[in-house]
Amino acid sequence: MSTDVLLAPYDVNQEGEANLPNPTQEKVLNWVDAVRATPFDEQDHIPVLYLQGGNGSGKTRAIMAPVIELLTQVNKIRILWGRMDFKDLKLSVIDKFWEVLPRSLVKAKSEQYHYYDIRQPNNGTGRIYFNGLKDLGGFGSQEFAVIVITEAHEITEQIYRTLKRRCRQAGVPCMILMESEPPNQTHWLEEILDPEKENYDPDVERWHVTTYENWDNLMPAYKGSLESMPEAAKRKYIYGKSGFSVAGKPYYSGFKPHIHTGEFEWNPDRPLLIGWDFGFHFPCALITQLDLQDRWIWLREFLGRDITIQKFGDYVSEQLNLLYPNAEKRHFGDPACKQSNDQSEDTSWQILNSKGIMVHIRQSTYRERKEIIERRLSTLHGDKPALLVDRRNCPIACDGFQGGYHYPEQDSMKEYSDKFELPYADGYYEHVMNSGEYIAVNVFKAFERKFIRTRKKKGRV
After folding, report:
1. Are 149 and 92 in contact (CB under 8 A)?
2. How far apart are CA 355 and CA 314, in angstroms?
3. pLDDT below 50 — which residues of the chain?
4. Each residue of 189-213: b (16+ CB within 10 Å) or e?
5. The predicted structure's pLDDT at residue 459
6. Are residues 218 and 270 in the same domain?
7. Interatomic CA distance for residues 348 and 350, integer angstroms
8. What's the confidence (pLDDT) of residue 11?
9. Is residue 399 part of a domain?
């Protein structure tokens, strides 16, 4: 039986002709060819290609093309294509897969186990499984040559590690292909790419893919919707850079990166104003200073990760002495630092005080802090705003101002006050932003309100 078919893995144009691969899609084909050229008995690791890209950048089709080639050319190959939720996989991948590969090539299938046997030349057969990845118990001892993970940011690192151990089919080259939208900076996908992290995986090769690579293949209306997004969102959803998810309205209004950010040096003749936010997972110290025109400069942020306040305090003190020798320092922090916690018998305030760090505190509301900071964002001192952020040394704060620190989404609003909405407690950006808020409420004067009470007096209309 002839298996010659015309495939268009990169979709078709308006004339009905198959699109050619864009540069990254061509690179993926070459990468897979290089793995295939390696004798299976010489593979000393499982190569992992991770495509991190913007919306509509062609990531899925970049992977689909070599997968179909392997499926129709390598006899007895077993391929697993998965996503966290099977319903999402069907909508994002499976329907598109069968638009490319004719169902006439299906030799056999199992509705229960979601696999399909695909006809090959010379009576060969390749098998592909489509599965959700929430529960991997159904695979038993199954082994695969190729594992594809769609929207890898949705799964856990444990799932990834488990799948990697299943990528071991004998007799054929093995590989993992992943694609995802950019994750948060603290996501495990970021950590396995960092040689300084304990869970670093040297097998992973990440490529950034921008939507503009696939621009000519997108509908005009879709391109218009992408280009209308705020700049902070474009960085993630067009340029494919890691960062926050733009899930809600930014808590602080008026922040413009081209106006409120720059590169700044500290003034040794002026004190440092340091804000502290505590917690084991992401303790934070924010280093700021007022310049000669009373502009509040956010100079540097220090964010810990799963570290005690004892060790974090020592680290920050060491960095302060190194970067700002002999500087006068004034410390401000969360009033909760005087409360005991389960990490130590001493309070955070007592621990830092024992290291010569006297943290000043003041009770305040989110509203008070928001008004102080927004007034500074909207006020000019000279020719620049009264609040400026160093883009080199405060990347988390920059993202926080642009939406990482945001109001809750609509479905969570019921948990918040009707009179004044609180920022969403995201567990990451909030620590840097809160550190700045503690400085603000201690150093700058809050907005004064005058309340006039009127009442009727007896005998008067």
Report:
1. no
2. 8
3. 1-3, 412-420, 448-461
4. bbbbbeeeeeeebeebebbbbebbb
5. 45
6. no
7. 5
8. 65
9. yes
Residue 434 forms part of a structural domain = yes
Query: Residues 303-349: pLDDT tens digits?
Result: 988 888 889 999 999 999 999 999 999 999 988 876 765 555 678 88
pLDDT computed for residue 1 by the predictor: 42
Number of structural domains found in the chain:
2
pLDDT of residue 355: 86
- Number of helices (H) and strands (E), helices first, in the chain? 14, 17
CATH of residue 371's domain is 3.30.420.280
Instruction: Phi first, then psi: give them for residue 87, nearest 5 degrees.
Output: -60, -40
* Pair 271, 217 in one domain: no
Rounded (10°) angle between helices 59-73 and 23-36: 30
Residues 212, 277, single domain; the answer is no
Same domain? For 293 and 207 the reply is no
What are the helix (H) ranges across 272-379? 309-323, 348-354, 366-378
Q: What is the pLDDT of residue 308?
A: 87
Residue with tokens 């995802």: 180
pLDDT score, position 407: 87
**What integer pLDDT is reported at residue 30 of this predicted model?**
94
Q: Are residues 403 and 287 in the same domain?
A: yes
Domain extent at residue 91: 23-229
Asked whether residue 146 falls in the same domain as residue 195, the answer is yes
pLDDT of residue 452: 44
Nearest to 58 by CA among 90, 78, 29: 29
pLDDT of residue 281: 79
Query: What is the residue type of 362?
Result: R
Give CA–CA dist 413/357, Å, rounded.
38
Residues in the chain: 461
| 237 within some domain | no
Q: Could you tell me the CATH number of the domain that includes residue 186?
A: 3.40.50.300
Rounded Cα distance, 14 and 159, in Å:
40
Give the pair of three-digit tokens for residue 364.
């305040």
State the DSSP H helix or E strand holding residue 28, giving kind and residue range, or none if neither.
helix 23-36
Residue 198 lies in a domain: yes
Indicate the DSSP class of residue 102: -
Please indicate, yes or no, whether residues 192 and 44 belong to a single structural domain of this protein: yes
Domain limit, last residue, from 229, 244, 272: 229
174 and 44 in a common domain: yes
The confidence score (pLDDT) of residue 314 equals: 93
